[in-house]
Design goal:
Blueprint lengths: L1 E4 L13 E8 L2 E9 L6 E4 L9 E9 L32 E6 L2
Antiparallel strand pairs: 1-4, 2-3, 2-5, 5-6
Length: 105
């Protein structure tokens, strides 16, 4: 199984040591919790094997930048340095992206 994201077109500047945090949850139990390299523009590919003890049925897969908080509910972008002028940033959804994975025995 692979989780893949292309580079963002908004220059997010994640940095050279950026990581993606991937989780897989089945029936409410986290069966995979890992980080993997992500490029400065947010692109990544993370491949994994679904653990054999995972419950059959629907599971969720999430992938979020690891240890980065750019959305603090105050409207302030925690990633932008002081060189950004008011109105230059475009707000993005802070909702965690979730995809469904069907696990079969």
């Amino acid at each position: 199984m692979s989780v893949i994201a292309p580079d963002a077109d908004c220059d997010p500047r994640y940095g050279e040591n950026a990581r993606i945090h991937v989780t897989v949850t089945d029936a409410g139990a986290k069966v995979l919790d890992a980080t993997s390299p992500m490029n400065d523009a947010g692109g990544f590919t993370y491949s994994f094997t679904v653990p054999v003890d995972s419950a059959a049925g629907a599971a969720t897969v999430t992938a979020m930048p690891y240890n980065i908080d750019w959305c603090d509910d105050t409207g302030r972008n925690n990633r932008a340095d002081g060189s950004v002028r008011a109105g230059e940033l475009t707000r993005a959804s802070c909702a965690q992206p979730v995809r469904i994975l069907t696990i079969t025995p």
